[in-house]
Amino acid sequence: MNKNLELIKKAENKHDLYRDEIIELLKDGYCNEELFKAADRVRKEYVGDEVHLRGLIEFSNICKRNCMYCGLRRSNKNVKRYRLTPDEIIDLAKKAVGYGYKTVVMQSGEDEYYTVEKLKYIITNIKKMDIAITLSIGEKTMEEYKAYKEAGADRYLIRIETTDKKLYEDMDPGMSYEDRKRCLKALGSLGYEVGTGCLVGLPGQSIESLADDILFFKEIGADMIGLGPFIPNEDTPLAKEKGGDFNMSLKVMAIIRLLMPDTNIPATTAMETINKNGRIIALQSGANVVMPNITEGEYRKLYALYPGKICTGDTPDHCRGCITEKIKSIGRTVSESKGFRIHRCS
Ligand code: 5AD
Ligand code: SF4
Ligand code: FES
Q: Where on this chain does [4Fe-4S] cluster bind (predicted)?
């Protein structure tokens, strides 16, 4: 049998691979289908056929950071900035409950307008609706993370973006890789479900460092891992760079599923942006979560991390129906639960 097919088998059975083996699989162009099928089997065995939907509220596109790849970076003057008031955010969460969501994800740039007091007000009011709350609002202090947790936040997403320290610090000027890791650690120690992830195909990113990303996720025992291809944005310094590859993103995702069988893995919007069936393909290659957008009106378009973002002209109601149909069409079901990670392996 082909050596790499054996590696896939080993990963499927033992949920473990050495760095060199991961690199081997990422470089291999022939065993992709087998890899995706194995990830799909492991997904089915450990997290089942249910797909967890998380309603995404993009509540502010104002950001004090300047990440090279991102359209919301502070130096970008070509995007009209907006922020929703606390009550508007609570209102969107209420609508999310109406659409049947059991989790909302509150995402924004790093916007200091939302003080701890404001966030506590938002979180406690949404919590009254008996849904899970995920925050995705960037780097904060331990005290701030603690305050949000005490107010009722359940999960926190903060991608490491890349574990190549030099690349990280080149891509995110003024930010420190060590600080990023400290945030992840702090969140874990406070009892959050911790979500992280990476970009695939950043300029100068090596296959080896993608293998390190995968091993990092396993090492910290991440509860959610979201990743997608880097998509060049016209309004950023990386405008002329080559974007990430769909298949490579899918392979990284599939290997993560093999090595971390019971973690939650979203089929991301960026995947669908570069492949028109990207989320469904991802759901059939290891993913078990989708995060439909529940932001309303022109704000969807203004939350312009990268170009070509899907669903910018659609309503929350439409997206909810659309994704439900797609999930059913591949024989899967929409989960009725809050979708916390259930530990099934040691
Ligand atoms: N292409 C793909 N993903 C991007 N993100 C930001 N900019 C881009 C881009 N140009 C991702 C980052 C961030 C998440 C919210 O969006 O990984 O963590
Ligand atoms: Fe801000 Fe996040 Fe974009 Fe970086 S990736 S510029 S922190 S919104
Ligand atoms: Fe938004 Fe399909 S999920 S249009």
A: 63, 67, 70
Q: What order do you get walking across the sheet with 55-60 strand by strand?
A: 55-60, 103-108, 132-136, 155-157, 193-200, 224-229
57 Cβ below 6 A of ligand 2: no
Ligand 1 centre to CA of 230 (Å) is 7
pLDDT digits (tens, 9 = 90+) for 146-171: 999 999 999 999 999 999 999 999 99
DSSP state of 224: E
- CA distance linking residue 322 with residue 64, whole number of Å: 34
pLDDT digits (tens, 9 = 90+) for 228-284: 999 999 999 999 999 999 999 999 999 999 999 999 999 999 999 999 999 999 999
Q: Which ligand sits closest to the CA of 307?
A: 1
Do residues 138 and 109 lie in contact, with contact meaning Cβ atoms separated by under 8 Å?
yes
Q: How confident is the model at residue 1 (pLDDT cuts 50, 70, 90)?
A: low
Long-range contacts of 168-173 (CB under 8 A, 24+ apart): 170/68, 170/204, 171/67, 171/68, 171/69, 171/202, 172/65, 172/66, 172/67, 172/68, 173/66, 173/67, 173/68
Measuring from atom 7 of ligand 1, which residue has the nearest CA? Answer: 70
Q: What is the reported pLDDT for 345?
A: 74
As a whole number of Å, the end-to-end CA separation of the chain is 30
Could you give the domains of the chain? 49-255+264-334 (3.20.20.70)
Going from the Cα of 64 to the center of ligand 2, the distance in angstroms, rounded, reads: 8
The H or E element spanning position 136 is: strand 132-136
Query: What is the distance in A from the centroid of ligand 2 to the CA of 109?
Result: 6
Q: Which are the contacts of 173, defined by CB distance < 8 A and separation ≥ 6?
A: 66, 67, 68
CA of 300 to the centre of ligand 3 (A): 12
Name the closest-CA residue to atom 2, ligand 2.
109
- Of 190, 108, 199, which is closest to residue 153 (Cα–Cα)? 190
Alpha-carbon distance values, 130 to 121, 243, 340 (Å)? 15, 40, 14
70 lines ligand 2 (CB under 6 A): yes
